[in-house]
Specification:
Elements lengths: L2 E3 L1 E3 L2 E3 L4 E5 L7 E6 L3 H20 L2 H17 L1 H12 L3 H18 L9 E3 L6 E9 L2 E5 L7 H12 L3 E5 L5 H13 L7 E3 L4 H14 L4 E5 L2 H13 L5 E3 L4 E5 L5 H13 L9 E7 L3 H14 L17 H11 L7 E2 L27 E4 L6 H4 L6 E7 L2 H9 L3 E2 L1 E5 L3 H10 L4 E4 L15 E2 L13 H4 E9 L23
Enzyme class: oxidoreductase
EC number: 1.2.1.3
Subunit structure: Homotetramer.
Length: 511
């Protein structure tokens, strides 16, 4: 029986608006859940509810909030298989990847459960006697978190866990096409004992969310916005927050380069390019965009890469496959537009292009009933090609060549994104020259452009974000604000920079 899921605000289910059907992209005739979408007023109401609940939640001692985070981790761990299976069914992510995604939530909880005892401030020496200076981390208030559906449970946890730990309340709007996975994760958070209203789930489309967010910002019931999604929408969210003097946490798209040096282990580089380019069917913000290969190894790399792509398993995501279907029909339609960017001067070295069907099969696999697409490798991309410059959310990778590392760095930085990158080399000097010259927030050496660990900062620059970071201790700066306090117990008014004792040196002294 197909379930119907609704928003949950203040611990109560709230049903309104039209119904959206979340469909299994591997079996388009199977409805995973029917989702009642909220209206803008529901979103802004959720923010008011969160604001009322946040004051009491902030009064809960941080170590106690840390124990709640620990409970969330244990609950997710105990339900890992069920949650991963739901992710696979709802968005078509291969089960092994989905299980890894769920593991990322557990890792995030394991890291942050101790931060409840380490939300440190500092004591700072004063320039005057009988005076003490202190700093404190304080919660921002209410965080509105808007997440994409390609990582429907892991990426939200990067926001929800630290935000809640720091004493904030949250209004979370997941992607509607991944609403069942989000609802399941919400239930696990709820089971950990969060008070009503501290975490609220609003199921809505993008336009509705933007309108509701605009109203909530105007009312002053949202104090931090976290957004994961496209650069285009992220720019609009950033502009909206700027009008209210807020700095959002933006994690946006990428056109992630992989540089293959002449001394690279080519088999390792091919393995990394295969996973980075086609894992999750190329639908990651950290997916490989362009392989930039030294001209001396270009042909050999391309030959090996084409063979690896041809031999990769694509099919039912419940099996042992490199990738399954695209996430949803809208992404399939958009991906077909990207395939239109392949031009006559390009060479497709991977075989058929487009949807896998009975008329265009991949071996014996016809992709019947699902949104399956052939993986595409395009050689000969040029710096002025759209295929080189713009994010292509799907299973297509461009290849070009270079002669010097300086040229490779120029090509890698040219699209203006700055999320992730990779270099394959055995030369430490090349590694450090690359790291110094690249504009990306994350650099991998002899590894994929994809992959994150819970205790390392995640985020990008340029068209990939506004420099904010998620994960590790760095994300605490997104969900707390620094408060300073000075305590003068001298019994008199001491004026900073004015009533400071001065010891006069003899600057004319010479040996």
């Amino acid at each position: 029986m197909t379930s119907e899921i609704v928003s949950v605000i203040g611990g109560k289910e709230t049903s309104s608006g039209v119904t959206y059907e979340s469909v299994d992209p591997a079996h388009l005739d199977e409805v995973v859940a029917r989702v009642r979408l909220a209206d803008p007023g529901t979103f802004s109401s959720a923010c008011r509810t969160a604001a009322a609940a946040q004051r009491e939640w902030a009064r809960v001692p941080a170590p106690v909030r840390g124990r709640v985070i620990a409970s969330i981790g244990r609950l997710v761990e105990a339900n890992a298989v069920e949650l991963a299976r739901l992710v696979t069914r709802e968005i078509g992510k291969p089960y092994a990847e989905a299980l890894g995604e769920v593991r990322e939530i557990v890792d995030t909880c394991d890291f942050f459960l101790g931060e409840g005892r380490r939300l440190y401030g500092q004591t700072v020496p004063s320039e005057m006697p009988d005076k003490n200076l202190f700093t404190f981390r304080v919660p921002v208030g209410v965080a509105a978190v808007i997440t994409a559906g390609n990582f429907p449970v892991a990426v939200p946890s990067w926001y929800l866990v630290p935000a809640l730990l720091c004493g904030n309340a949250v209004v979370w709007k997941p992607a509607e096409y991944a609403a069942a996975s989000a609802h399941a994760l919400y239930r696990l958070f709820e089971a950990a004992g969060l008070p009503d209203g501290v975490l609220n789930l609003v199921l809505a489309d993008g336009a509705t969310t933007f309108e509701g967010l605009e109203a909530a910002l105007a009312e002053g019931t949202v104090h931090k916005v976290g957004f994961t999604g496209s650069t285009e929408v992220g720019r609009a969210v950033g502009e909206l927050c700027g009008r209210h003097l807020q700095s959002p946490c933006l994690e946006l798209g990428g056109k992630n380069p992989m540089v293959v040096m002449p001394d690279a282990d080519l088999d390792l580089a091919v393995e990394g390019a295969l996973f980075a380019g086609f894992g999750t069917a190329g639908q990651r913000c950290t997916s490989l965009g362009t392989v930039i290969v030294h001209e001396s190894v270009h042909d050999e790399f391309l030959s090996r890469y084409a063979r690896a792509v041809a031999g990769a398993a694509i099919g039912d995501p419940s099996g042992d496959v490199l990738c399954g279907p695209l996430l949803e029909r809208r992404f399939a339609d958009r991906y077909e537009e990207y395939l239109g960017w392949i031009l006559p001067h390009h060479t497709v070295v991977s075989g058929p292009v487009g949807r896998i069907t009975a008329d265009s099969p991949r071996g014996d696999f016809t992709g019947e009933g699902g949104l399956y697409y052939h993986p595409v490798v395009v050689d000969g991309v040029r710096p002025d090609d759209r295929l080189f410059l713009e994010e292509t959310f799907g299973p297509v990778v461009g290849v070009t060549s270079f002669t010097t590392l300086e040229e490779a760095l120029h090509l890698a930085n040219l699209p203006g994104y700055g999320l992730s990158c990779s270099i394959y080399t055995t030369d430490p000097a090349s590694v450090f020259r690359f790291r110094e010259g690249i504009g990306a927030g994350m650099v991998s050496v002899n590894n994929s452009t994809s992959g994150a660990e819970a205790h390392l900062p995640f985020g990008g620059n340029g068209r990939s974000g506004n420099g904010s970071r998620q994960s590790g201790v760095w994300v605490l700066d997104q969900f707390t604000r620094w408060q300073s306090m000075n305590w003068d117990h001298s019994g008199r008014l001491q004026k900073a920079q004015m009533d400071v004792a001065e010891i006069v040196p003899d600057l004319e002294f010479r040996l």
